[in-house]
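Hi R.,

Here's the chain you asked about this morning:
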Amino acid sequence: MVSKNVLKRPTGNLSLFAFDKGESLSTHTAPFDATVQVLEGKARIVIGGEGHELVAGETVIMPAGIPHSVEATEKFKMLLTMIKE
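And here is the predicted structure, written out as tokens:
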């Protein structure tokens, strides 16, 4: 998995992520709401124990403080938008 911060501001961040099939981000929480927009490929995103299969063009909201994880079910790129305010 590789990532790159595209924009970093006091009000939020934009970060690009690229995963090979099978790579993942383990379960964790974040202090702010965030969205994941799938740019390419497919991934399984679990939020609060509920799984979501996402494909290119789909977006999901990850609420602050709720455990979530991301696993690439094939090569996968996403844009993470962290909303601080």
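One quick note: The longest strand covers residues 68-83.

Cheers,
M.
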